[in-house]
Structures are given as C-alpha cells and as structure tokens.
Amino acid sequence: MRLLTAAIATVALTFGAQAVTAAPVEIKFSHVVAESTPKGKMAIRFKELVEQRLGDKVTVSVFPNSQLFGDDKVLEAMLLGDVQMAAPSLSKFQKYTPALQIFDLPFLFNDMGAVDRFQQSETGQELLNSLRKKGYVGLGYLHNGMKQLSANSPLRVPADAEGKKFRIQTSDVLAAQFEAVGGVPLKKPFSEVFTLMQTKAIDGSENPWTNIYSKKFHEVQSYITETDHGVLDYMVVTSAEFWNGLDDDLRAEVKKALDEAIAYGNEEAAKLAAEDRQKIIDSGRSEVLQITEAERELWVEAMKPVWKQFSSDIGQDLINEALKANAK
Ligand code: SIN
C-alpha cells in the first residue's frame, strides 16, 4: 500500500512539474546571407538579446546561408510553422503585395538616407502591414545597401549590358530594369549566384557591397561598376498565427529586442558597405569602375521608363511619396 502511495505521489509530482514548466517558445530565424553581413549580424544580436532577457522562455536558433530555407520557400514554410522569422529582401515579396515593388524601381532613391526616411514615414510604416491579408506580420525594415552592377566585362554605359545575362532576384521590376538596357535577366536563388558566375552561366549581377564581398562574387566577376542604381533592403517578417499566439508581455519583449537588433543591423549596414567596398578594391580581384555623371545619366535615362511600366501596379501616389524622401 505504501509503495502504491509513493508511486502515485511520484506520478503526480512528475505531471505537476510538467504543468508548471511550460516549454520555451522556439524561434527559428532563417536567412540566406553570411553571418558577417548586416542581416547575419542583426539575427545574431536578436538571439543574444532575447536569450539574455527572456532566459528559458524563448530560444532563438539562427540558420544563415540558406541552411534551412532559401527565399523561394521560406515564406510558405512560415505559414506551416516550420520557421518563425525571416528577413527576405523586399524584392522577394512581389507575389504577396505589388506595392513593395516600389523598392526595386531603379534610381528612385538618391541614397540610403532617402530609403530610411521613406521606410520610417507613415506611408513606409503602413507598407509593413501590406502582408497581413496573406497571414504575415511585417515587424520592421532592415538595411543592406545600395546595389552595384558586376560583370565579367566592363559596364560603363547601358550599351555595354546589351545581350548580357544577369542574375536577378524574383522580381518583375528587376527583370524590366535589365531588359531596359538590352540585358537578359535570369531569376535565380541567391545560393546559386557564385556558381553561376564561376561557370559563366551568367555574365553579371547586381548586389550591395556586403553581399558581393561575403559571398566572394568579386573573385568571379572581373568588374564592378559603382552605380548605386537601386536598393537591397529587407523586411523582417513572422506569421500572424505565431505572433498573435504569443503572450502579450512576451510579444512586447521580443519586439523590443528585435527593434534594438534592427537598429544595430542598420548601423552595421552603413559601416560594412564602406569597409567591404574597400576590401574588394584592396583584394585586386575585381576592378571597381567609377562612372562619370554623364555616363550615369545614360543609365538613368535607359532604366527610368520602368517606373511608368509599373506605376499602376505599385501606385503613382506611392511613388510620389517615396520621391519626397529624397528631399532632406
Ligand atoms: C539577401 O541579401 O538576402 C539576398 C539577396 C539576393 O537574393 O540577391
């Protein structure tokens, strides 16, 4: 009898203990770039802040370099609960919301200051909600930087791009941008870009300095033209189901940690763009070409008709709002 009582007590204690010790919330954060980039650093900082502050209530696992999902799969996986956070580039949201294509329009923003002003404006913040109907919550923007053109032959004027194959992200605006200069755009995953360049399956591409350096694209592209012709930034997203399922206090703490990590990532973005540009020049592996104002104007003239092509899709009002951000 005493044995039976002891056994019942043990069972009660075991189950009782389980009832009070809730399993930690697990956040899998998946991305496609290297840990040394603004996004890679932001994700690690987010993990550190969450785990320092929330102890065993939340764990964050970061999967860089497309280890878990590429950008073509991550958003679907998020709705299935296989990943909780990601920060795809803004170009990857085309099939979810046409408005975000605004960030792909060539020569729309003068610099990263303008990009930031637009993202932080009321209109920019409203765009974070544009994915709600599809089941996603936009938690914030993260910078990478302005894009440069790279190729295995020098690109100084639009005619140099004629007939060349360019890898692009999955964006019709970016396809139209390269078509506007007679190029042949190919939508390919980020994880394949180095091999495509190395095997000469593509002639060129566009990327910000930190992606070029961290993925060694400069070792397999002979020229990089400093065009700053567009922006590559990110939206940190989660699923509405996951986000709304968090306890209010916990959600607020996770958001606070994320905002701080994004602020850190944005500071790093500005610093790394300059540092990685210099490292590429110092490596001597790729020649960094400066173009004259007149040459730049030719690229602007050739690519700017793309705005009109997409103005009804994106909304002319939105384009006008974005242009206002160029004024300081
Ligand atoms: C990224 O920076 O997340 C990848 C962008 C790309 O696919 O070029």
TrEMBL record:
It comes from the Bacteria. Pfam families: DctP. Residues 1-22 form the signal peptide. Keywords: Signal, Transport. Belongs to the bacterial solute-binding protein 7 family. This is C4-dicarboxylate ABC transporter. It comes from Marinobacterium zhoushanense.
